[in-house]
Amino acid sequence: MEVFAEFLEKIENIQHRERTEEVLRWVSEKYPNLTPVVKWKQPMFTDHGTYIIGFSVAKHHLAVAPEEAGITHFTDEIMQAGYSHTKGLIRFPWNSQIDYALLEKMIDFNIFDKADCSTFWR
Question: What residues does the YdhG-like domain cover (predicted)?
Answer without folding.
Answer: 16-111
